[in-house]
Amino acid sequence: MNLPQIIEISQIGVSILLIISILLQARGVGLGSTFGGEGNFYFTKRGAEKTIFILTIILAIAFLGLSFYSLMVQ
Question: Which of 7, 18, 23, 30 could form a disulfide with 59 if both were Cys (CB 3.0 to 4.6 A apart)?
Answer without folding.
Answer: 18
